[in-house]
Specification:
Oligomer: single chain
Length: 552
């Protein structure tokens, strides 16, 4: 009796063709029947009315998609031959699209692209747009805060100063932007420790007849005074000014972020003068406000500071608790941002389909034929690629498992290996071979048994102090006996401890890779990944997968 073949190329190709034709037919019907009604209406509206619609929806966090639809119709109307008035409307639409991508979808790349287009149109017609500079400043400020890159922060400060200057131009006169730009510039000057960077702006601001809300103007007046007191290290005198700032802000959604900024800044100053308990109490108050108004991004910074201050007070359990909150919330926000990006990308696909429908017409048959051919080619390429990937994946899985088993054996042997006693150190001016071996044994004992090496500030000098030897002798012995420098040696012990903690799923199972790397002393995620690969031959993710498959 003949067995039925498991895989038949002819049958598979016929099935694939049938699926492709079904998908294309259903897609064509959906495109014809589901064209957004609102688009059909909005595309006929005047440009000025569309900009107003886009502005209204851009300020509504619940309807950013509608804002992008209206504003994209406007930006697609751009033509070099259009009037100056229409180009101004296009410029505003590009700027507001940048705002939506920045503050609703957290997509800095697309926000930056839109703002650059807005800047180009403004330069083309010699139009002043302080809001464009302000939002560009927001992008670089956010990236600077995340990366700690001072060059990026300086660029953000330049944009904020530009926005402040342009907002006071007689053609614009926007005091709301002036206030926002000046306040953000103060925060950046503090972060960069460039306390005199805003001297000229301050002269203008304090004499300005500001028609913006009183509390925001007064907030900045106090804020600059605080900056000057920080420059002079007169921290005690700055504290009452923070209280005055807090007194200006009512307890509502529109003022909550100003309140949180003040609480965070005051806690930083309290920490500078060693009043950690008061700083912690203030941060806990701020965290309650974060919970009330749902400002999760502010909560991340509050948890990070709470963990740091509890650690300084020696309360390691509380510090670990807040550090766990910090990493958990940071991961949550990252996932939310990814979800927002996916949602935005989906809507962008809808916009592209709308734009294609405007140009479709007579090319429909040609597009259909081309699509079928492309899909068939893609299907064949994918099938071949999947087969190749399957072969390589089997080989990689075996390689990872082998490396993991070897690494586990090394860890086991190190656990069993214990030095009984160290020989007394020779008291000679020059290190002889016995002295070197004795010192190297002592170094190994410290690195194997001291938890202090997992402190990110642990240094060669500290190791020398623990061995009661000069750091030059310690460095010499490490180089000669271990065959590497201090940094590589300490990183090997930290990576091995990270492996042990990854294996200990009962205690560290809920820790992220970033949390484990921080707990063993690595300041940088990139350094941890590099050193982990150097020591184990695997990335942390590959190690975890091999560890799980090894257990199963």
């Amino acid at each position: 009796m003949n067995a039925t073949p498991i895989f038949s190329p002819r049958r598979w190709t016929a099935s694939l063709l049938l699926i492709v034709l079904c998908v294309l037919t259903s897609s064509q019907k959906a495109a014809a029947g589901k064209q957004p009604k609102v688009f059909s209406i909005w595309k006929k509206l005047p440009t000025e009315q569309l900009v107003k619609i886009g502005h209204r929806f851009a300020n509504n966090p619940e309807q950013p998609d509608s804002a992008l639809l209206a504003l994209t119709i406007v930006t697609n109307r751009y033509d070099k031959s259009m009037s100056r008035e229409d180009k101004i409307l296009v410029q505003r639409a590009q700027r507001m699209k940048g705002f939506v991508y920045l503050f609703r979808y957290y997509d800095y790349a697309k926000a930056y692209d839109c703002l650059l287009h807005a800047q180009d149109v403004a330069e083309e017609i010699d139009f002043i747009s302080p809001a464009t500079a302000l939002n560009l400043g927001h992008i670089f400020s956010t990236i600077g805060d995340q990366t700690g890159d001072h060059t990026v922060k300086k660029k953000a400060l330049d944009y904020m100063r530009q926005a402040f200057k342009e907002s006071l131009n007689t053609q614009v006169q926007n005091h709301n932007i002036a206030n926002t730009a000046f306040g953000n510039a103060i925060s950046l000057a503090w972060s960069l420790e460039e306390y005199d960077a805003l001297r000229e702006e301050w002269k203008i601001f304090k004499q300005l007849k500001n028609n913006d809300a009183h509390e925001f103007t007064q907030f900045n007046l106090y804020y600059y005074q605080i900056l000057m007191l920080l420059k002079a290290k007169r921290y005690q005198e700055a504290l009452p000014l923070f209280d005055k700032q807090l007194g200006l802000m009512p307890d509502d959604d529109s003022h909550a972020r100003y309140t949180l900024l003040t609480i965070y800044n005051k806690s930083r100053v309290l920490a500078l003068i060693g009043r950690y308990n008061e700083a912690i109490e203030l941060l806990l108050r701020g965290e309650r406000i974060c919970q009330k108004y749902g400002t999760k991004d502010a909560s991340v910074e509050f948890y990070r500071s709470l963990a740091e201050y509890q650690q300084r007070l020696g309360k390691k359990n509380l510090a670990l608790q807040y550090q766990s909150h910090y990493f958990a919330l940071k991961d949550t926000l990252l996932n939310l941002q990814q979800f927002a990006n996916i949602k935005e990308m989906s809507f962008a696909g809808s916009l592209r389909r709308v734009n294609e429908q405007m140009e479709q017409g007579r090319r429909e048959r040609q597009v259909m034929t081309t699509t079928i051919i492309v899909l068939l080619i893609i299907a064949l390429v994918i099938s071949l690629s999947l087969y190749i990937l399957y072969r390589k994946n089997r080989q990689l899985r075996a390689s990872y498992s082998n490396l993991y088993q070897k690494n586990q054996e090394v860890l086991r042997l190190e656990e069993e290996y214990k030095k009984p006693q160290l020989e007394e150190k020779y008291k000679q001016s020059r290190l002889g071979e016995p002295d070197k071996q004795a010192l190297y044994d002592k170094i190994q004992q410290i690195l194997a048994n001291s938890k202090e090496i997992f402190d990110s500030d642990f240094s060669l000098q500290r190791l020398a102090d623990l061995t009661e030897t000069s750091y030059k002798k310690v460095s010499q012995v490490i180089n000669e006996k271990a065959g590497c420098n201090f940094n590589n040696l300490i990183n090997e012990y930290r990576v091995k401890e990270a492996c042990r903690r990854m294996n200990d799923t009962e205690q560290y199972g809920k820790y992220t890779i970033e949390a484990i790397s921080t707990s063993v002393g690595f300041k940088s995620r990139s350094t941890f990944l590099l050193q982990f690969k150097r020591v184990t031959g695997l990335t942390p993710s590959e190690y975890q997968r091999a560890q799980k498959s090894g257990k199963s």
